[in-house]
Amino acid sequence: MYFFSSKPNDDLEIFNLARVEYIVKDAKLYGTNIEGQFLYKIVAKKAQASNTDRQIYLEKVFLEYNGNQAIDWIIKSDKGQLLSNSNVLALSGNVTVQNISNKNNMTRIATDYLEINPNTYTIATNRDVLIELDNNKIEAKGLTAQLKDNTLNFNSNINAIIQP
Prior knowledge:
Blueprint: E1 21-32, E2 38-50, E3 56-65, E4 73-82, E5 89-99, E6 108-117, E7 122-133, E8 136-146, E9 151-154, E10 158-161
Antiparallel strand pairs: 1-2, 2-3, 3-4, 4-5, 5-6, 6-7, 7-8, 8-9, 8-10
């Protein structure tokens, strides 16, 4: 705008730019550590951002860790949002966190909202959660988990349905 404006330079401070949106189809975002080593990949059917906010909005989100880290969890959701000024990915709509290490007895976590910090392998929600583990079902409200250590912490009441 500066080079093509017919207005004098003094008026540029008061010149109001219009909202500009950026949309990428089949987006892939890669996360690395401080040394630049690949940690995880976020794939989205669509990624959208604008020049007026510092958020990235995602549709049909899939997150997987690099196989060299021994993180056997994949995460899917209908929508996602990369929160500005943080490493948090907020997921919503049919969120599933699935352990893929054991094909016979798969662990699956389902909720409608989840926040994940992919760099620290931490997930958290304060919403209703359904955990399927070895053909058993556990219902809880709220969950914090450490994917690297495979540990789950529940925030409140737990109902378990144990299959014989």
